[in-house]
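Lecture 7, part B: from sequences to assemblies.

Below are the input chains for today's worked example.
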Amino acid sequence: MNNITPPAHCTFEPDDWLRLARQWHPVARSCDIAGAPTKAVLLDEQLVLYRLQGQVVAARDVCPHRGVPLTLGFHDEEGIICPYHGLRFGAGGRCNRIPSSPDQPIPAKLNLISYAVEERFGLIWVCLAPDADQPAPLPTMPHWDDAGFQQINCPGFDVNGFAGRQVEGFLDVAHFAWVHTETFADPNNQVVPAYNPVETETGFAVDYWSSVSNFAADSPQQAPEGFSWLRHFEMHLPFTATLTIHFPGESRLVIMNAASPVSARKTRMFAPIARNFDLHIPVEEVHAFNQRVFEEDRLMVETQQPERLPLDLALEAHIPADRSSIAYRRGLKRMGFGEFFLV
Ligand code: FES
Ligand SMILES: [Fe+2]
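Predicted structure of the full complex, as C-alpha cells:
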C-alpha cells in the first residue's frame, strides 16, 4: 500500500516530491538493518526499517493504532513491537498480535503502510510510490558482482545540503586541484581537458581522460610518468552516479555516489565501492580515505547558494569544464523536475 501524498512539513514542491517518490533511493546499509526497528528519513517521510526472516520491511514510522513511532519500540522473533500497547508487526508490515484482545481477528487497517524495498550494492533501496506503468529501474554499478572484485560499503554520513548539489559536485572535474589537494589531487594540475557527456537511458555517461592521479598524495605507489587516467562516470538520474577509475594495468576502482534525499536540505550519503587491487588493505582504511575526500567537499556543498540546484541554465554562469553539470541539469529538467523549490 502506498501513501502517495507528500508528508506534512514536506520541504519539496508537491510535484517534485511525487516525481522523486517514484524513484529508488538508498536509505541504509544492509549490514545495519536487523530485527530491531531502525529509523530512516526519505523525502521528509519518517520510516521504520527492520528485517524479518531475511526480508527487509520499510514502512511509515507511525503505529496505525495511536500514532506512536515504532522506532521507539523493540522487537522479538516475530516482528517489531509498539511500545504503547504492544501491537506487533511482522512480515510485510502486517499486524500479527493485539495483546489486549488476542482472540480478535486482526483488521487490515492495523497493518503498517509499507513501501517497495530492494537490496543491492550492500544498500537498502526504497521506492515510496512506484509508477505501475513505468516502474523506475534500480541504478546499476559496474564490476560490483565481478569475480576478483572486493565489495566495500562505507558507513553513511550526513550532508546539510540538497542532494542535487552534492551529486553535481561528484561529477565536477574542475574542483580536484582546489578542494582535493590533501587527498589525491595536485594543486598545480588545474587544466580540465575537453570531454563530452553522452546521453543514456537513465541519464548520461562520460569518459574523462586526464593526468590527475588517483593515488593518495602521500602514497609510495605512483603511476608511471605520462600515465593518462580514465574516469568513466555514469549518471543515473536523479541522485546516483558511479565513477570507474582505470588505474595502471587492469586495476579498477568503482565508487558509487548514492545521495539519499532526506529532505530538500538534508542528504544522507552512501558510497559502495568495488575494487580488484590492494585487497590486502583493511577496508577501514578505504572507508577513512573515502570519508576524507567527501569531507573535503562538505564546505562547498553546504554553503552553495541557492541551496537548490537551478535547472534553468540561465540562472548560473558556466565554464567549459561544466559539461557534466550542464548535462545533469538538463537530465533533471527532462525528467520533468521544477526547481526543487524549497518550501
Ligand atoms: S499506539 Fe501503537 S499499539 Fe497503541
Ligand atoms: Fe569532490
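Note for the exam: Residues 63, 65-66, 68, 82, 84-85, 87 surround FE2/S2 (inorganic) cluster (ligand 1) (CB under 6 Å). Keep this in mind when comparing with the next example.
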